[in-house]
Every structure is written in C-alpha cells, then in structure tokens.
Amino acid sequence: MKMLILVLGTLLTLSAQAQGKKYSEEEFIKAVAEQVKKQVDQIKNKSVTELTKELVQKDEAQKLRDLDLQKREDQIKVNAQELEKKIKKFHTEQNDLLGCLQKNDNDQQTRVNQQVEVVSNMQPAKAAQLLSVQEADIAVRILQLLDPKKASKIFNLMDKEVSARLQKQYMNMKR
C-alpha cells in the first residue's frame, strides 16, 4: 500500500516536472524508477523511531477526528430529540388553542341563537331599536337567522342609514 502511494506520488511529481515535456515509455519508466529510488532512500535515511513517531501521530490525529465525529453525532441526536419534543409541545399547544377558538365560536353562536330568540319575540319596532345600536356584525348575524318577514319589518323600522349599512353588510355576507 505504501509502495503504491510512493509510486503515485512519484508519478505526480514527474508529471508536474514534465509539464510540456514528453517522455518516451523507456524514459518514463526510468524517471519513475529514479523517483521511487529517491523516495525509498529518504525513507531509509529516516530512523525507524521517526517513522514510528510519524505513524503514532497520524494514528492519534485519526483518533481525535473520530472522537470529534462521535461527539458531533451525539450532539445531533440530542438536538433531534429536543426538536422532536418542541414539535410535540407545539402541536399540543396548537390543538389547545384551536380547541379554545372552537369553544369560543360555539359559545358565541349559542349567544347569537339566544339573542335571535329574544329578538324574534319582540315587537319589530323594539327589535329595530335594539339592533340599530348593536354591533353591526352581531346584528347582521341575528337578522340572518330571523324569519325573512320579521327581518324585513325590522329593516323598514330602522333609521335609513343604519338599515342601508346593515343590509349592505347582510348582502355581502350572503355571498
């Protein structure tokens, strides 16, 4: 394996040196052999202890990288778990909020239905007075649920401006 690396390194060195220069096959093989010999001589000149130190350093560096990668993986797992918890909490809170909104809508509809009962039992003149001062959205919702004949009598007895505004809003609501 080391020899293959040396040969590849040599080839790269030769190709870098020979940019623009063309080698014949024999010259190339000779040049590669010379470079390999130089590399082998350099390795021979180094002491075994130096080579061992170099290998140990590389091994330690690899272990540190592996440890760092393991820490990152662990942190990613922890972050994923925290994110999962936050998503579950968000969904719970969202469902609670939607439940509250639904309950409020139901309660409001119940109150509107009760008001419709009250207004339907009133004289049209009194109902017109009451709905004229009522909030426009609520008045329109009440008028929508009333019998059409009763609603028309109430519209006729209201102030013209109030009646026109409520009728316009009533018509837009029907769409």
In a nutshell, what does this entry contain?
Helix content is 89%, strand content 0%.
Provide an overview of this structure.
- This protein is mainly alpha-helical and 175 residues long.
- The protein is 89% helix and 0% strand.
- It has helices at 2-17, 25-45, 48-120, 124-133, 136-145, 148-157, 160-174.
- Helix 3 crosses helix 5 (136-145).
- The two termini are 80 Å apart.
- The model has no long low-confidence stretch (mean pLDDT 84).
Stretches with pLDDT under 50, minimum 5 residues: none
Helix count equals 7
Using only C-alpha atoms, the radius of gyration works out to: 44 Å
Mean pLDDT across the residues is: 84
Structural class by SSE content: mainly alpha
Largest sheet: none
Estimate the global geometry from the Cα principal axes: rod-shaped
**Topology order in helix (H) and strand (E) letters:** HHHHHHH
How many strand units?
0
Beta-strand percent range: under 5%
N/C terminus separation: 80 Å
